[in-house]
Design goal:
CATH superfamily of the largest domain: P-loop containing nucleotide triphosphate hydrolases
CATH topology of the largest domain: Rossmann fold
CATH architecture of the largest domain: 3-Layer(aba) Sandwich
Shape: globular
CATH class of the largest domain: Alpha Beta
Number of helices: 20
Structural class: alpha/beta
């Protein structure tokens, strides 16, 4: 996108069903040096937006075929198109709803000509800045960065297109994808690129909360409503007021609570456990699942009506194996983070990149990050292919009863830990700890990090192994 020519008059689209008011508003707009296009309802406005890209859209709320903000909700207005609301509705609720949808201003009828002129001047002055921002976003996308996401592959560019469309709206989004594909990052990117970015982002993993506690987690409770409720608790809907609520693994929510959630989505109201007062919230809900939702519906794990309420705008994330072109970029991104956290710079060798790009990545981006963390620990100054340990390097052979290296089958000389079937868990753990310690050259801190335990725990286990060893 190129910067607009400041010498050409800017274009304003006026969406107003009152013909007399629209005519006077058009005359006022032209007096400030603007060209004007007019629409009497949403259908006219959508047709106009398909033909040209205005520099400003002026919306009435109450139109014959819907609410003016529907243009923002259904993404008829592009993310970088500024709009203002001019309405006869003077309520604070209407004003706040418009501003949270991204309105640059909210003017009430009859409008003050001077204030409207100020709004037009600000919109015109912002044309070059908006063009620069659009160019910056385009260059970042080409470089493989979009919000919190990394990758320049064609499939990810398609995801970015969807996020650019839906982020500025307020519609629910259902994020689909395998575990480890980055569903939380997508949710945070949607929030960061929405008009709610300065408001709270609250995340709930529906599968990680006991069924007895999730209702209180979502909706809160009053003091004394159940044993242990010694004070009032605000649920996540209240905590996310004005912002975004991300419900991860929505298919793991108990069926009875799915009914309550559906009601909140439809009415924006709820009551705390043990409460009588009906509370109203303004929260955008994003949801995610790593299951096929249609299968979950057939199995009775997900209500069909809730699915359709959340599935207003689905975003499907590709698995990492379908975007192998992004592996090196993501790996280097993780390496930059790890280097910065540790204050020790390490490099990625070409053979390590080749090893990374040859993997299947069943655990997706999460598995890649873990692999880079392990490789960083095992490497000196340069991460080589020998430092890259992934699920592809190890398989379980049930017939033989050993944990074997897939690389070993191909003739590579890789460290392998063989544990016969029937070995006790304690003995298998002992062998794993000692083998990892040896692989890390006796470095206990590195060993602890690879094993995912604390150094203190490692010392404790090594001491126990020494005490149990025969003298």
């Amino acid at each position: 996108m190129t910067a607009p020519n400041d010498a050409s008059p800017p274009l304003a689209l006026l969406v107003e069903d009152d013909a007399v008011f629209r005519t006077s508003l058009a005359a006022l707009t032209r007096s400030h040096g603007w060209e004007v296009a007019e629409a009497s309802d949403l259908a006219d406005a959508r047709r106009a937006l398909e033909q040209e890209s205005p520099d400003l859209v002026v919306l009435d709320l109450e139109l014959p075929d819907g609410n003016g903000l529907d243009l923002k909700l259904d993404a008829s207005l592009t993310p970088d198109t500024p709009f203002i609301v001019v309405s006869g509705n003077t309520s604070d609720t209407a004003r706040q709803a418009a501003l949270r949808r991204g309105a640059a201003d909210y003017l009430t009828k009859p409008i003050e000509p001077e204030r409207f002129g100020t709004v037009l001047h600000a919109a015109r002055a912002g044309r070059p800045l908006r063009a620069q921002v659009a160019e910056l976003q385009a260059s970042l996308r080409e470089a493989g960065r979009y919000g919190r996401l990394v990758g320049r592959s064609a499939v990810m560019q398609g995801v970015y297109d969807l996020l650019a469309r839906v982020s500025p709206t307020g519609v629910p989004v259902l994020i689909l994808g395998e575990s480890g594909t980055g569903k939380e990052l997508v949710a945070r990117t949607i929030h960061d690129m929405s008009p709610r970015a300065e408001a709270p982002f609250v995340e709930v993993n529906c599968g990680a909360i006991p069924a007895t506690l999730i209702e209180s987690k979502l909706f809160g409770h009053e003091k004394g409503s159940f044993t242990g409720a010694d004070r009032r608790h605000r649920g996540v809907f209240e905590q996310a007021e004005g912002g975004t609520l991300f419900l991860d693994e929505i298919g793991e929510m108990p069926a009875e609570l799915q009914v309550r959630l559906l009601r909140v989505l439809e009415t924006s109201t709820f009551t705390r456990i043990g409460g009588q007062e009906s509370l109203t919230v303004d929260v955008r809900v994003l949801a995610a699942t790593n299951r096929d939702p249609l299968v979950a519906i057939e199995e009775g794990r997900l209500r069909e009506d809730l699915f359709h309420r959340l599935n207003v705008f689905p975003v499907q994330l590709p698995p990492l194996r379908d975007r192998l072109d992004d592996v090196e970029m993501i790996a280097r991104h993780f390496l930059e983070q790890i280097n910065a956290e540790a204050g020790i710079p390490k490099r990625l060798a070409d053979d390590a990149v080749a090893r990374l790009e040859s993997c299947v990545w069943r655990g997706n981006v999460r598995e890649l990050r873990n692999a880079m963390q392990r490789a960083w620990i095992l490497a000196d100054d340069v991460i080589t292919a020998d430092n890259v340990i992934t699920a592809d390097n190890v398989r379980i052979d049930g017939a033989e009863g050993f944990v074997q290296s897939a690389a070993e089958d191909a003739g590579d000389e890789a460290d392998v830990l063989s544990i016969p079937v029937g070995t006790t868990v304690a003995e298998a753990e002992r062998r794993l700890v000692l083998a990892t310690l040896a692989a890390c050259g006796g470095n206990k801190r590195a060993t602890a990090e690879v094993l995912g335990i604390s150094v203190r725990t490692l010392y404790s286990r090594l001491q126990a192994y020494q005490e149990r060893s025969p003298s």
